[in-house]
């Protein structure tokens, strides 16, 4: 089975801190995604990447950046954390071809105080 | 403007009965649809999908129906079990941009014993 691992389950950070959320997948998937989940809003796409060093903005990229230096790793960066970035962050991956089916990690619950 | 809508935030069903979760979409270009299930503190897991060339897809207790003219899909769970209690998200995409899913806001299903 594909495994998507997010480095932290829970994080508490202070306003203004630089925050790194790490995601690693072990099935050689080309595509990787970062979503945030908020009550009543579902999953919203922040950024995605379809290849190493490639990145595309999703629906809500403001305040975030990403890095994909290796195929298996996709990092989400909050340059200066703010309280409105308190959320559940979910990483996912999928192959470029074949059946469309994102596989998700367990999520990181980030609280910015 | 939400392209994928789940208008019922919650649903409560008796064990053994049918659960019907609904999803509407506005973008007529969408041609592939998925349902995900999410338990608290876990990432979403893929449940079932359907291509727009079909109007029904079945997998065990789960059936997804697609009505393209109404831009509506539904997930039927028969019979419902307490372990089905979770948040269900529908998602849509176009096959030519298969790496980007658009999610609805989710429906919380409670199956009462």
Defining key terms:
heterodimer, A: 113 residues, mainly beta, seven-stranded mixed beta sheet, 53% strand, B: 113 residues, six-stranded mixed beta sheet, 11 strands, globular
Report on the structure:
The complex is a heterodimer of chains A (113) and B (113). With 113 residues, chain A is mainly beta. In chain A, 0% of the residues lie in helices and 53% in strands. In chain A, strands 2, 4, 5, 6, 9, 10 and 11 form a 7-stranded mixed beta sheet that branches. In chain A, a hairpin with an 8-residue loop joins strand 9 and strand 10 (103-104). Chain A is globular. Chain B has strands spanning 4-5, 10-14, 19-25, 32-38, 45-51, 56-59, 62-67, 72-77, 86-93, 102-103, 107-112. In chain B, the strands form 2 sheets. In chain B, strands 2, 4, 5, 9, 10 and 11 form a 6-stranded mixed beta sheet that branches. Chain B has a 5-stranded antiparallel beta sheet with strand order 1-3-8-7-6, with no helix packed on it. The mean pLDDT of chain B is 94. Chain B is 0% helix and 53% strand. In chain B, strand 9 and strand 10 form a beta hairpin. Chain B is mostly beta strands. The chains are: A mainly beta (113), B mainly beta (113). Chain A binds chain B through residues 4, 9, 31, 33, 35, 40-45, 48, 50, 58, 90, 92, 94, 96, 99-107, 109, and chain B through 4, 6, 9, 32, 34, 36, 41-46, 49, 89, 91, 93, 95, 98-106.
């Amino acid at each position: 089975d594909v495994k998507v691992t997010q480095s932290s389950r829970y994080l508490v950070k202070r306003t203004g801190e630089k925050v790194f959320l790490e995601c690693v997948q072990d099935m050689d998937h080309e595509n990787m995604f970062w979503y945030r989940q908020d009550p009543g809003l579902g999953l919203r796409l922040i950024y995605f990447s379809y290849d190493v060093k490639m990145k595309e903005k999703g629906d809500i990229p403001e305040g975030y950046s990403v890095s994909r230096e290796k195929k298996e790793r996709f990092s989400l960066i909050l340059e200066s954390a703010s309280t409105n970035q308190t959320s559940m962050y979910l990483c996912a991956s999928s192959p470029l071809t074949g059946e469309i089916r994102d596989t998700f990690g367990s999520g990181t619950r980030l609280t910015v105080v | 403007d939400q392209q994928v809508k789940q208008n019922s935030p919650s649903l409560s069903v008796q064990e053994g009965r049918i659960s019907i979760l609904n999803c509407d979409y506005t973008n007529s270009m969408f041609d592939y649809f998925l349902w995900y299930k999410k338990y608290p503190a876990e990432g979403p897991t893929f449940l079932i999908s359907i291509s727009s060339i079909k109007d029904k897809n079945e997998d065990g207790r789960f059936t997804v129906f697609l009505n393209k003219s109404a831009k509506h899909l539904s997930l039927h769970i028969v019979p419902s079990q307490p372990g089905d209690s979770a948040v269900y998200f529908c998602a849509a995409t176009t096959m030519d941009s298969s790496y980007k899913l658009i999610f609805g806001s989710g429906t919380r299903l409670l199956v009462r014993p």
